[in-house]
Design goal:
Helix content is 41%, strand content 13%. By secondary structure, the protein is of the alpha/beta class. The strands form three sheets. Strands 3-2-1-4-5-6 form a six-stranded parallel beta sheet, with helices on both faces. A three-stranded antiparallel beta sheet has the order 7-8-9, covered by helices on one side. The protein has a two-stranded antiparallel sheet with strand order 10-11.
Amino acid sequence: MSGLLDGVRVVDFTQVISGPYAGFMLAQQGAEIVKLEQPTGGDQSRSMMTPTGPFAAAGQSPMFLSFNAGKRSLAIDLKRPEARAIVAKLVAQADVVIENFKAGAIARLGYGYDWAKAIKPEIVYCSISGFGQSGPKAGAPAYDPIIQANSGMMTLTGFDGVTGPTKVGFWVCDMSTGITAAFAIAAALSRQARTGAGAYLDVSMLDVAASLISPMINNYLNFGVEPALMGNGSPAGSSVSSIYETADGLLQVAAATQGQFNAQARALAREDLIADPRFLDRQARIANAAALREELLKSFATADARYWETKLAKAGVPAGAVLTIPQMTADPQVTGRGLIKTAPAPDGLNGEFRTVGAPFRVDNVTDTALPTTPNLGQHTDAVLGEIGYSAAEIVAFRAAGVVG
């Protein structure tokens, strides 16, 4: 794909989510990603969320399909001494290296930043890990739920006395870390282009998670306010912002200001709420939140969620129907933006697959399709040939188990 990063070459040691998603963001803007995978099994995500059928048999899981479109797969056993010379040639021609091993693991394997910098001083090298490259937990294993727990995020999510602390239902820390890493890499590439200087980037999932909830952390550090489970309420303290049952489903309303509360009351034909002394201002509404909710539920129950979504939006009140995934993918806003892309099925499979494209546009251009995801080792021969290995050498590497 053409894009802002045309000509940028990336050596990608990553797997599962955070690192692959960072690479996906770069690939959507034209970066050439060579993904290094173990010859047996490859990226762990190839066998995660796997349905039955030919896609599963080909190692093309929903997770892998989501984060690896447009990359090339080189199957290589990094523990073999012959692999070091191969990867060194790749790094010599690259602009960026990304890895998401546990802290210190890639250096022990022989492919750390000092090794890469000795090959190419201007390299941008990004290490993604659960806890960062320093501190007492550096090197500890971490998946997304562990970071949600350690960051305090889970103590904000859930219902007091009902659920207790609850994790978010998707990989929020992994994916936000991938986006953060992609931003840091793009910034480092900008400096590299201007000055020729390389960079070492230490991206920590815990650090990113803390940044996502920084208002709550700052409220505690500076004002002594420890946040509690807020259910579907607002972290800003609005008693109106919540989920309400309508005639046919759920509606999220986020009336944060006095003006929005008044506009909501008028849209509901409940001007009486504006004059009610129990609801005159924010503090009064917080003190009488249960009574206010009871009044609002009576009104919202008279029509369906989409009706109220439209009416409140016209009144300037943020509101949205709570959609299922099938409803969301068919929503006119999503289809009109071209967010859902199609890509040819990976080699050896029939048809196509649909996935979410890059969450931004450049020059208001929306591509209608994505490149496909690679099969394990699909580009091994091509990549090795491009860095100078002969067909006979590649055959010998494969026979010796160095590459797959």
